[in-house]
Write a structure and sequence with these properties.
Number of helices: 10
Strand content: 15-25%
Distance between the termini: 36 Å
Order of helices and strands: HHHEEHEHEHEEHEEHEHEEH
Structural class: alpha/beta
CATH architecture of the largest domain: 3-Layer(aba) Sandwich
Number of domains: 3
Radius of gyration: 24 Å
CATH topology of the largest domain: D-Maltodextrin-Binding Protein, domain 2
Length: 290
């Protein structure tokens, strides 16, 4: 059994076909089939059922695959350690952070890393909705902070990072905010909901809390959204850490809308499983993990 055989098995499972695995690993489809068959022969287990168009793990294959992913992760970590023993710091590290999370904790970590590795250029991008995961899966971003909505979990390593509270708010003089009774979806459809645009192409849509059938105004960021709400031109969800002062002063109030109560959004730090990790990116990852 070899590490390369495990990589082939992982590629077949995650891509769903032998052809997809071949394209991903830049090998011929016959080579992929041969390597898997050789692995099954060596261990005496049929890992994949070929009865359908898409190969699927057998019951024994499920157990073997779960353990193999752990072995691959351990091998990756060992490779990182070995590489970092002689590595020079990489020229650039790219982080993509969801716009719902405050930058201050991230900047404190980056500041400390920059002192240790001053030659590495740090790119920090604020992304909305599916933007961070799209940057990661395109191999642009090295590390992202985002929700797991729509994320192909077999392709990423993810650790729980933080929670943010999202609350529907409006100016106290905005019509739906003048009373505390719960507004139905039908009632709210005649009022403009302000939403932040997805910074991705839409391939990994993470839009949430969109009122069905209502008027909508799309803006580029939360700063613009907050100004529009303060101008009494609409309502919408905003992370509460961005509006603590406005809520305390009564300049914005939390709305009571059917199906749109304040909620906790769980964020994760993520990186691709199959992407090489440089010494600076690894240091940032560890600092984020705490």
């Amino acid at each position: 059994m070899t590490y390369e055989q495990l990589v082939v098995l992982h590629a077949i499972v995650t891509e769903g076909t032998f052809r997809g695995a071949a394209e991903r690993l830049n090998k011929s489809q016959s080579a992929i089939s041969h390597m898997l068959k050789k692995l099954e022969t060596e261990i005496g287990i049929t890992l994949l059922s070929r009865e359908e168009y898409r190969p699927s793990l057998t019951p024994s294959g499920e157990v073997f695959y779960r353990q193999s992913t752990r072995v691959m992760q351990q091998m990756k970590e060992l490779s990182i350690v070995a590489g970092n023993l002689n590595a020079r710091q990489e020229p650039e590290v790219f982080l993509a952070v969801t716009a719902t999370f405050p930058l201050k904790p991230i900047l404190e970590i980056i500041g400390a890393i920059k002192e240790e590795y001053p030659a590495t250029h740090i790119r920090l991008s604020r992304e909305s909705m599916g933007g961070p995961i799209e940057q990661l899966l395109r191999n642009d971003a090295d590390i992202i902070i985002a929700t797991m909505d729509g994320v192909p979990v077999e392709q990423v390593e993810a650790l729980s990072f933080a929670q943010v509270t999202i609350a529907p708010v409006a100016h106290p003089d905005f019509e739906p905010a003048r009373s505390s009774h719960m507004k139905t979806i039908n009632e709210m459809q005649s009022y403009t909901q302000v939403v932040v645009a997805d910074s991705g192409s839409g391939e990994f849509t993470q839009s949430r809390d969109l009122l069905p059938g209502g008027f909508r105004w799309t803006v580029s960021d939360f700063a613009a959204k907050k100004e529009i709400l303060q101008a009494k031109l609409g309502w919408g969800g905003i992370p509460t850490h961005m509006i603590e002062g406005e809520l305390a002063r009564g300049e914005l109030v939390i709305l009571n809308v059917e199906g749109y109560q304040r909620r906790q959004s769980q964020l994760f730090q993520m990186r691709k499983r199959d992407k090489d990790v440089g010494i600076v990116a690894q240091a940032i990852w560890k600092q984020l993990r705490g």
